[in-house]
Design a protein that fits this description.
The complex is a heterotrimer. By secondary structure, chain A is α/β, with parallel strands linked by helices. Helix content of chain A is about 45%, strand content about 20%. Chain A is globular. Classes of the chains: A alpha/beta, B mainly alpha, C mainly alpha.
Chain lengths: ~325, ~160, ~500
């Protein structure tokens, strides 16, 4: 969307907002999903669209896909087109934090306005059914014994799965830069490698492999969440003596330099949406975990994530 | 257009051969500048070197083939080709400047029709406008697909 | 037989008049959107998915099945009539199909595509119903070394699309491989040939390349010749329907296409394009009229179209049993299932047996519906070619660019699309075959990452490719196929060129 039209739209919305001060019902938003159709951020953006409209927190919401480079293409475009705008949102998450660093993206998350953290899914560490590793301790012992032959499968290089594999390797007492991580296009393809017994262990979002874990085809050793989660038998890494936590969070952002009242109006609309039964129902259907945090808390959180992810990526040699 | 190359080199083949060499060189240098190494097995540069070598061999093949008479390209209506390219420029320019999908596609339609020798530019502009407006309404309103919006799209 | 009773159960639900209506609407919508040039099945399903949300789960599932098969079929119509495949899997269909359409045989080409899709989808859906649990066990055993072997076989078969000169064919292929390098390497995160442009980081979109090379390249080529030798396509010559001879030449390719397409589609990383290449090569080798290939051989439409649709149904095997989407279309379908609170995976057949069987029954019904609706439409589609050339090509360009804009509204993407159009024009002008470029772009990155995964797992030992019997056999087949006939034929062709 161009500068001109976004300005025009912003003006229209601003007029509408003046006429009726009630928050929400009059919002006409567009959400940028910085990924193609079918991806995680696309799903999050469309879920937010659905929940905001159905719960009456926005009159209309349009989702626009701007795929590319782990979300950094969408981020760069958004940072430019949504400056000061009160009708444009962006969905993003931990993968974007990593992609900004590995791609040397000129625009980072500090140039947009964090509105709210929405969901946070645990990653799960699994081994194939036939694996000799029965517990997390067995796996960490194997890593320590022979890091090269402990082969991991997971999503793309530098993503959350890769970062977790490196963190666990480090915590197990081996060199994280030697981790033998085989990247697949996503949890699905990695799953086939797990079921085929071609790798030692795998990492993916819990929801993605839930079926195989429940059917017993995969053995879940641990989740990356800080606390146990109801309904998930596998215990956190931390509770099992591996001091690592990593949450695959997704959040929503507004453009740079927005006025305080716009920020307040947008975050209220999001906060009300997150509390709505419509949103809770979507979370349940998609198997997402609620991880809501308001704007200020979210901003601090991003800063600490940025540091942690950066340190890990430098250790694996993916970022400078 | 090409005169039968009875003597000397067959120009198009020669140019393509040189182009392949250039592409191979770019690929080779790109591969050499890669910094991330694979921990185990082959790195990302291996495929680049392979393709660069492949392109180099084909470039050499083209140079050899250029010594023989090659294909004579058919007569070409360059004005027509130019109009189609102008049509594409019209579309991309419209999207770039924020004039939106409808104006861009209208220009694309009218200029492409012009390239086939039609002179009724105004009529074609109107047909293009009707067609792209219809597409926009269909996709934007019925299917919720966000096509790039400009001043015209804002009217709906 | 347990599966059979449950399937009948599913039919019981799907056959209600109201549900039949939903199926018909779904097929109609899917075909209507899928038929637009430049809009492939993935986008079609993504666009139409929300339409189904308005209905109850049963009805929406049935409409969904209709949209899926309708979108798949719609893609081949424009490939045949206008030489503008909307996705990579129809590129091969365009090779022979468009030749047929130009000589007034568009009707039979469309009919054999429709019937082939029907037959293949029928077989493959039956395979899905009865073989899925067994097939998936075999499929996950396929390691990276095996995929690499399969890629090698696929590479060798590409030579069938090379046309008259091996040098020009290989150049096209190399160009595709080169384009395949562009982007972030999946395994290491290293960028290749991106020159710092973030829009290139995700690599070249196959659809953008296919639409650019075919739709725009074709338009440029036609316009460049228009003033000198207007090549007006002939809408109908002879019968619009398939003759007895056409039937005789089509039925075997349909069956072979289905046999090639379904198992490869069921592999977690098989894809829909490879079976179409393999089928085209097989038909060319087995045909009694090999000389017609390149000028419009009906086998070259019947086989790949059947393979394409069989692999589409095959991709439902990993999707339903593992929850693993193997194509963009399947990824969108997965999102669709989740909307109905169905989480595909190993427990799906246990937990939601009724819905799964209703879906499979719906696929059968949608398939029949597709045939019933589309065969009469063949006559209508062919009339498209009667549109005056200026408007026909103007319309093609509008729709082709619209597909790109809809998927990724960026100026860089449109510039790439136009650039590929110019490339397609130059290649046509100097008689370089276009299809191998697309083949290279698809197979190159797959072969690269599978080979490197294999080497990573073996800590760099190349013998891993021969230690596994599956990959060893496939590599030997590929080597034999390459070295024996291709080399001799290639040498002969080179020699012929010398004269």
């Amino acid at each position: 969307m161009s500068f001109f039209t976004s300005r025009l739209a912003a003006a229209c919305i601003a007029v509408a907002a003046m006429v009726s001060p009630a928050v929400g019902q009059d919002l006409e938003l567009s959400i940028i999903a910085p990924a193609g159709a079918g991806g995680g951020w696309d799903a999050a953006a469309r879920a937010l669209q659905d929940a905001m409209v159905k719960s009456g927190n926005a009159r209309s919401v349009q989702v626009q896909n701007v795929p590319g480079a782990g979300g950094t293409v969408g981020l760069a475009q958004f940072a430019q087109s949504a400056r000061g705008s009160d009708d444009q949102l962006l969905v993003g998450g931990i993968t974007m934090v990593g992609a900004i660093l590995t791609n040397n993206s000129p625009v980072d998350l500090s140039s947009v306005t964090p509105l709210a953290r929405l969901t946070g899914d645990p990653l799960v560490v699994v081994v194939p059914k036939a694996s000799p590793d029965q517990t997390l301790a067995d796996l960490t012992a194997a890593i320590k014994g022979d890091v090269a032959n402990t082969i991991w499968a997971g999503g793309s290089a530098g993503g959350a799965d890769h970062i977790l594999a490196a963190l666990i390797t480090q915590a197990a007492g081996a060199d994280p830069s030697k981790v033998n991580y085989v990247a697949y296009s996503g949890g699905g393809e990695a799953l086939a490698a797990m079921l085929g017994g071609q790798v030692t262990a795998g990492i993916s979002g819990y929801g993605e492999w839930q079926g195989q874990i429940e059917s017993g085809d995969l053995r879940a050793l641990a989740i990356s969440y800080p606390e146990p989660i109801e309904g998930i038998a596998a215990q956190p890494l931390k509770a099992q003596g591996v001091d690592v936590e990593l949450v695959n969070w997704r959040g929503v952002f507004a453009g740079p330099d927005i006025p305080d009242e716009t920020k307040a109006a947008l975050s209220t609309a999001i906060a009300n949406t997150v509390k709505s039964p419509e949103w809770q129902e979507i979370l349940k259907a998609r198997g997402w975990t609620d991880y809501y945090a308001p704007a200020d808390e979210f901003a601090t959180f991003i800063a600490s994530e940025n540091e942690r992810v950066g340190a890990t990526l430098r250790a694996i040699g993916l970022a400078k | 257009m090409q005169p039968p190359a009875r003597t000397g080199f067959h120009r198009p083949t020669l140019i393509i051969g040189v182009g392949l060499f250039a592409l191979a060189a770019v690929t080779w240098f790109d591969a050499r500048s890669m910094t991330i190494r694979a921990n185990y097995g082959m790195g990302a540069d291996a495929a680049s070197y392979f393709v660069a070598a492949f392109l180099g061999v084909l470039g050499a093949g083209h140079l050899i083939a250029a010594m023989r008479p090659g294909i004579r390209a058919d007569d070409t209506d360059w004005a027509g080709v130019g109009w189609v390219l102008l049509a594409l420029v019209g579309l991309i320019g419209s999207i770039w400047m924020g004039a939106g999908f409808i104006i861009g596609s209208t220009l694309l339609f009218a200029f492409t029709a012009r390239s086939f020798g039609r002179r009724a530019l105004l009529a074609d502009l109107l047909i293009g406008l009707a067609l792209s407006t219809l597409i926009f309404l269909l996709f934007n309103k019925l299917l919720q697909l966000a096509l790039p919006a400009g001043p015209l799209e804002r009217l709906f | 037989m347990d599966a059979l009773t449950q399937l009948f159960h599913g039919f019981g639900a799907a056959i209600l008049p109201m549900n039949l209506l939903f199926a018909a609407i779904g097929v109609l919508l899917g075909t209507a959107v899928g038929v637009l040039p430049g809009i492939g099945p993935a986008l079609t399903v993504a666009l139409l998915l929300p339409v189904t949300f308005q209905l109850d789960p049963g009805g929406s599932l049935i409409m969904f099945a209709g949209i899926y098969y309708g979108g798949m079929y719609g893609g081949s119509t424009t490939a045949i009539l206008l030489n503008t495949p909307g996705e990579a899997a129809s590129v091969v269909t365009a090779l022979e199909g468009n030749r047929m359409a130009r000589s007034g045989r568009g009707g039979p080409a469309l009919a054999t595509a429709a019937l082939g899709s029907f037959v293949a989808a029928l077989i493959a859906t039956a395979g899905l119903a009865f073989l899925a649990p067994w097939l998936v066990k075999v499929a996950v055993r396929f390691g990276p070394w095996d995929y690499f072997g399969l890629m090698l076989i696929a590479f060798v078969t590409v030579s069938a699309t090379f046309g008259s000169s091996p040098l020009r064919g290989l150049t096209s292929l190399a160009l595709g491989l080169w384009l395949g390098l562009i982007g972030i390497d999946q395994l290491t995160g290293q960028t290749r040939l991106t020159f710092g442009v973030p829009n290139l980081f995700d690599g070249i979109e196959v659809t953008t390349l296919a639409v650019g090379l075919f739709a725009i390249g074709e338009a440029l080529h036609v316009v460049s010749r228009h003033a000198f030798a207007p090549e007006k396509p002939i809408p109908i010559k002879g019968s619009v329907w398939m003759t007895r001879k056409d039937w005789g030449r089509s039925w075997k390719p349909w069956l072979r296409g289905a046999a090639i397409g379904f198992p490869i589609g069921a592999l977690p990383a098989g894809g829909a394009e490879i079976p179409t290449f393999l089928s085209y090569t097989a038909e060319r080798k087995l045909s009694r009229h090999p000389e017609e290939f390149g000028t419009g051989a009906i086998e070259g439409v019947a086989g790949p179209e059947a393979a394409n649709n069989a692999s589409a149904a095959g991709s439902l095997v990993p999707l339903l049993t593992l929850g693993l989407p193997t194509s963009a279309t399947a990824a969108v379908m997965l999102a669709g299932f989740q909307q109905y609170n169905i989480q595909p995976g190993p427990l799906l057949f246990v937990q939601h047996a009724d819905l799964v069987w209703a879906l499979i029954a719906s696929l059968f019904i949608a398939n029949v519906m597709l045939l019933v609706l589309n065969l009469p439409l063949v006559g209508l589609w062919v009339q498209l070619l009667k549109i005056p050339m200026p408007w026909l090509y103007a319309g093609i360009l509008v729709f082709a660019t619209m597909g790109t804009i809809a998927a990724n509204p960026s100026v860089v993407e449109l510039l790439l699309l136009s650039g590929f159009g110019v490339l397609g024009f130059i290649m046509r002008r100097y008689d370089y075959p276009v299809a191998p470029v697309i083949v290279g772009l698809i197979l190159g990155p797959m072969a690269d990452s599978q080979l490197r995964r294999a080497l990573q797992m073996s800590l760099g030992d190349p013998m891993v490719l021969f230690r596994h019997p599956g990959s060893a056999i496939m590599i030997v087949i590929a080597a034999l196929a390459l070295l024996a006939p291709f080399l001799f034929r290639g040498l002969a062709a080179l020699r012929k060129e010398e004269d």
